[in-house]
Amino acid sequence: AKSHGTGKLRFFHPSLKENIRQRIDFERALKEALEKDQFFLCYQPQISASSGQTVSLEALIRWQHPVYGLVMPDRFIQLAETMGIIAHIGAWVIDKSCEQLARWRAMGYHELRVAINLSAQQLLVSELEETVSAALQRYQLSGSDIELEITESVLMQDPERSIERLGALRKLDVRLSIDDFGTGYSSLAYLRVLPVQAFKLDRGFVWDMDKGGKAWEICATAISLAQNLGLEVVAEGVETEEQSEQLKKLGCHLLQGYLFAKPLTVEAADIFLAASLLG
Ligand code: C2E
Ligand code: CA
Ligand code: CA
Ligand code: CA
């Protein structure tokens, strides 16, 4: 509180002008981040439930800024989307993760894949196919070496259009998976016709599954649904042995979460991969 000449107390808020200023600065910084080379990717391993081997790594973007520090995607992906610059960032992610996969394959990890997150706007623009096929060509990869993750809520915004867009991507033979499965209210009718190869069970369900509520039943039902549709299931956010054991028992194919590894820098991922080959 700030006291004024009249003796009245007034609560002092950061002014609206100050807020707008900060927001403009943040947006300007985000706009420049790509050309200033401030983004980097971390990679989180997805482990085969049956063999314990790393099958795939999910690319997760980070923004390292000189003033803001390390900025996590939850703080800028949505903003980049409203600013209309997500397609550029997304194209960079696709190129960079394909380059990294090619590097790992050259190191001898011939079966390894990468999983790449797509935003709503990225899915809708038709340049996406060109971006993906250009990256595949540049790094001599085939479509089936990469997987694109699209959240269920994005797909359900416009199911007809999504089916059409996913179909176009499937022509490149890339794998497609529904991210945050169970949170987007898909109807069973759509699930049946979406041309996807996998579900990623949302970490909210995994988190709750050993706590005695309904989450275990939801996980079990989602996994058996996927099996009936001939799809793979990836469980995300696996943090405890208990969750891992239950998910394995339920027939989940791939496990991802802090129990196995956090999102890793390239250097740390190299060490993780080398160790998992030995073990
Ligand atoms: P997501 O695709 O659902 O990714 C999973 C998030 O859960 C990641 O957060 C990951 O670090 C976190 N996580 C992984 N394992 C665990 C665990 O065991 N416990 C807990 N509590 N969390 C875990 P992150 O990296 O902050 O990414 C957040 C979201 O940002 C992602 O959610 C994704 O939607 C988006 N995102 C990240 N990278 C990209 C990108 O390159 N492009 C687009 N469009 N979106 C991205
Ligand atoms: Ca994801
Ligand atoms: Ca997810
Ligand atoms: Ca998520």
Automatic annotation (TrEMBL):
Where the record annotates domain EAL, the positions are: 23-277
Output the superkingdom of the source species.
Bacteria
This protein is called what?
Bifunctional diguanylate cyclase/phosphodiesterase
From the entire protein, which fragment is shown?
Answer: 413 to 691 of 725
